[in-house]
Amino acid sequence: QVQLQESGPGLVKPSQTLSLICTVSGGSITTTYYAWSWLRQPPGKGLEWMGVIAYDGSTYYSPSLKSRTSISRDTSKNQFSLQLSSVTPEDTAVYYCASGGMRGSWFTFASWGQGTRVTVSS
Fold first, then answer.
1. What span, in angstroms and rounded, lies between the C-alpha atoms of 101 and 33?
2. How many whole angstroms separate alpha carbon 23 and alpha carbon 109?
């Protein structure tokens, strides 16, 4: 059973870069045909997919966030990370990491972290 745990600061100032880490246990981030995603849910709004890093290190991003988003990984630590630059208060949300199988550019979300709340405020 794959388990995921998000970590990072709960408060980020406007214009700064939000950085989160997802630590994975019970499975490897290099497992073939698995993908590792970041999603978020702003207060009172729906869930938004931000991007993904696949088992082979390839990345895919939401078009609306692509210019500000970077997802990377550290295979030695079995972690993957999210960086979101130039944040504004509209980036305030609960951020989740998730994983599941993939086929082409089709990704699933079978396992989820508990989520971490990030507030953007001065």
1. 6
2. 16
Q: pLDDT tens across 38-57, in order?
A: 999 999 999 999 999 999 99
pLDDT tens, 95-113? 999 999 999 888 999 999 9
Q: How far apart are CA 26 and CA 16, in angstroms?
A: 33
Give the span between the Cα atoms of 70 and 22, in whole angstroms: 14
Cα 6 off chain centre by: 9
Integer Cα distance of 37 and 53 in angstroms: 6
Q: Among residues 59, 54, 62, 87, which one has the least CA distance to residue 71? A: 59
User: 113: which residues sit within 8 A by CB, 6+ positions away?
Assistant: 4, 5, 6, 22, 96, 97, 98
